[in-house]
Specification:
Strand order of the largest sheet of chain B: 1-2
Helix content of chain B: 55-70%
Radius of gyration of chain A: 20 Å
Strand content of chain A: under 5%
Helix content of chain A: 55-70%
Number of helices of chain B: 9
Shape of chain A: globular
Oligomer: heterodimer
Order of helices and strands of chain B: HHEHHEHHHHH
Largest sheet of chain A: none
Strand content of chain B: under 5%
Structural class of chain B: mainly alpha
Radius of gyration of chain B: 17 Å
């Protein structure tokens, strides 16, 4: 007789662990290649170092493939679909999954695709937000943005050399863009174009967002959401 | 013998995307604005024989600055609405010429070699886009739209427009008025209240002459 656990296991921490592993392996391989100046070593050290790096690279790629495959299987589809904000019980997981997928798209568009995103932290941030409690949508968006930033949903930004924003602006702008997209009025088929538009709008007002986020200024963030939510 | 006059350009309003919302509302949504610009340029590329590259980051910056400028000067008086629609097109053109988001990847080989499109493809495309959007919006709201005047073919205007806008993008608003056959406000083209004061003064003068 099969004994079922009283509660189904929570797949989110497992997904997170696999993504973390994938992230570390990808970054590890890259930083090793960047840091070890194989070309400048004398022979035979150059040949030995080259062989070691190739070996490490192969291990990294294998682990990356396994982690990616597992993460995808556990995660399912990653197309961003925004849940309604302030939707209490049962909304946490949907919110965290949507936030993860949308943040991935945002970071890719900004030029920081390799940045680590924590779905578990997104869930915690959503819990910390509490119920909508009569808050206006723009205020709810501002509070959620600050919760997501405080929970470090976007970990240290890994910007490409041609990224559209400087490193410290990436996390607050990506988070703001995703919340703006969630607040925006749009048709279902229009979700992707709306997300791209929200990201580009947010990049255009990056200085405002960064200043407000740094100061933890919910009123200023509320004003920005109120100004732009209808214009995505 | 003088050269034949270039034909008056076609506006291609039909190239703008359809929307469930009125154009004046849709244009204030980033995704419609961007899609409209892309589709409009697709149409112009066929007509002019050149391709345009769009800088999405610049388009977003233009859109935000335009939106803020429009919101800052939006009149409360409903009688001023029509004039504000025309003015808003000038504000959009000011933002575009101030931070040109287009780059023609080659000469406009299919355009009239003596016309504005061949002389300044990017400026021509932005100007026609702004006119097309405002025409579509005004046709819906007022059942009337600004007509393209023969002055749009005058290359001297475009020469001057390009040269002056490079130094001061605000003059784009006045040049758009000139191209559309309106009396341009060279002193404070970017101030709507100044434009309205001039329009009221002109209307009062006309009434005085009639009486």
């Amino acid at each position: 007789m099969t004994i079922l656990p009283p509660f189904p296991p929570d797949p989110m921490p497992l997904r997170e662990a696999l993504r973390g592993l994938r992230h570390v392996m990808r970054r590890g391989g890259e930083s090793l290649r960047d840091t070890v100046p194989v070309g400048s070593l004398p022979e035979p050290a150059q040949a030995i170092a080259g062989a070691v790096l190739r070996e490490v690279g192969q291990i990294a790629r294998s682990v990356d493939l396994v982690a990616s495959g597992l993460a995808k299987r556990v995660l399912g589809g990653t197309a961003p679909a925004a849940p309604p904000l302030g939707d209490g019980a049962g909304g946490e997981a949907a919110f965290a999954a949507a936030a993860y997928a949308a943040l991935r798209a945002a970071l890719r568009r900004i030029g920081a695709a390799e940045t680590f995103i924590s779905e578990v932290a997104a869930r915690s941030a959503y819990r910390a937000l509490g119920s909508a409690g009569g808050r206006e949508a723009a205020r709810l968006g501002a509070d959620l943005t600050l919760c997501l930033i405080a929970a470090r949903v976007v970990r240290e930004a890994d910007a490409a050399p041609d990224a559209r924003l400087p490193g410290p602006a990436i996390a607050p702008v990506a988070v703001f863009a995703v919340v703006l997209w969630m607040l925006a009025d749009r048709a279902e088929h229009d979700g992707e174009a709306a997300l791209d538009a929200a990201i580009d709008l947010s990049i255009a007002i990056a200085a405002d967002i960064r200043a407000a986020a740094q100061a933890g200024d919910a009123a200023r963030l509320t004003a920005l959401f109120a100004e732009f939510a209808d214009h995505v | 013998m003088s050269e034949p006059a270039a034909p008056v350009p076609v506006l291609h309003i039909e190239a703008l995307p359809r929307s469930n919302e009125p154009v004046h509302v849709a244009v204030r949504r980033m995704r419609w604005f961007r899609q409209a610009l892309r589709r409009y340029l697709d149409r112009l590329e066929g007509e002019l024989g050149c391709r345009f590259e769009i800088d999405d980051g610049k388009v977003a910056g233009i859109f935000v600055r335009w939106l803020r400028a429009v919101e800052a000067q939006k009149p409360l008086d409903p009688m001023a609405r029509r004039s504000f629609f025309e003015f808003a097109a000038g504000l959009m053109l000011r933002e575009m010429t101030g931070d040109m988001p287009l780059r023609a990847t080659g000469p406009a080989t299919a355009a009239d070699p003596h016309g504005a499109a061949a002389f300044w493809p990017e400026g021509y495309a932005c100007t026609m886009f702004c006119i097309a959007v405002t025409s579509a919006a005004m046709a819906q709201e007022f059942d009337a739209a600004p007509a393209l005047r023969p002055s749009i073919r005058d290359l001297r205007i475009w020469w001057s427009f390009r040269e002056n806008a490079a130094e001061d993008p605000r003059v784009s608003i006045a040049f758009l008025d000139l191209i559309l056959g309106r009396d341009p406000d060279w002193a404070m083209p970017e101030v709507f209240s100044h434009r309205m004061a001039r329009e009221l003064a002109a209307a009062a003068r006309a009434a005085e002459i009639r009486s």
